[in-house]
Specification:
Layout (H helix, E strand, L loop, with lengths): L1 H14 L2 H19 L5 H7 L4 H29 L2 H20 L3 H29 L2 H32 L2 H22 L13 H13 L2 H30 L5 H25 L5 H25 L4 H29 L4 H23 L8 H21 L9 H8 L10 H14 L1
Helix pairs in contact: 2-6, 2-7, 2-8, 3-4, 4-6, 4-9, 4-14, 5-6, 5-8, 7-11, 10-13, 10-14, 10-15, 11-13, 12-13, 12-15, 13-14, 13-17
Length: 442
Amino acid sequence: MTATLDEHRTRRRAGLSTALIATVVFLTAIAPLATDMYVPAFPSVAGDLSATATQVQLTLTTFFVGMALGQLIGGPVSDRYGRRRLLVAAVAVMAAASVVCALTPSIGVMTGARFVQGFAGGWAMVIGRAVIVDLARGARLVRVLNVIAGVGGLAPIAGPLLGAVILQLSGWRMSFWAVAALGVAMVVAVLVAVPESLPPGQRHGGGLRTFAVAGRQVVSNRRYVGYVLVSGSGMGAVFAYVATSAFVLQSMNGLSPIAYSVDFAANAAGMTVAALVAARLVGRIATRKVILAGQVAALTAGVAMLAGALWFGTPLPLAMVCFFVLMTAQGLIGPNGGALASAEVPAHPGTGSAMLGFVTWVAAGVIAPIAGLGGEHTAVPMAVLVTGCTVVSLLGLLLLARPAGVRTNRHSHVLEAGPGGSDPTTWLEPVADEVYEQANKQ
């Protein structure tokens, strides 16, 4: 038994190579790139395919729903059947779906292909993360996951800029050819750098049934549900912006694709900086207060945008400022809400993370087409959605996730009490280490 344990440790050390980490970073980047690279081309897509703004935005919906289902199902299935073959298959399917998008003759075909692209991409992302968890432990796992998470802030910046350059030099279809080429490169990278990290002896047959049982336990936690609402509704507001900002800034205010992409990248940078600042504030300022500050800022931006859309024709300076405030505020809301949700269910960290991701991407998929119901020349539906989603996020924090008087779970007790009666969320960071450890054991 000791020899088997030593072999397993040796396999972990040998398997977690720089090439493997780079490949998983690559896998993580594909989802925002597949979305943001063609966002600047929304008006062109609508014109070329004789589609309405809502129909074009529906391609975002199907992609987000596919991402949600792929992440929800991919993890449990790979726990049963292994990682490497399923990962190769997922990336290959994603590349094939990208080719269909590039060749699409109609908006209907593109909508279906985007669902498949999102499902395969979500499947690949969750398996890539599972490979890292299989091969790393303790501080090394935390460091690697931080590197991978950093792509979440960089890809939304690079995506629209790259998409705008492609749009200037060629057409919107070339964006999907670029994603397909990246998919082929990822297949090669997986074959070369990713080992089978889950040997047959360590697989389990529970699969989706075990996941369903754990899911029922997780959603019975009131505070967990509250923090999921905090994060998911906040992200819904962001994707109302993602789905309509090209029409608001280009069709209504005349920005060029390049100028729009620069603005989009600046807003994504604001979100990234806010998230990094929020991480530095852990242990210094109550995490709930940081979330609340972000929610107040987002609500202010939504109300201001709604007033501008109703009475002032959505002037360009107002739209740009409101979008920047909204995105920056999300950097305070989303990551903190997700972290507190995970801390509420330490016994099921993997299930809690999967449920949070599922709700977030479903919210994004539902919000995107509704935001475009008014067409290309009004921002009213988008502003209403931003305001409404932020109100729901506030209710999740202040009502469902409100601090309880007495807790019996020792993790939750640490979060609730803290020393000297301070806000419990200032103790998130040490508890997060424990959550990571339990995630590894699961």
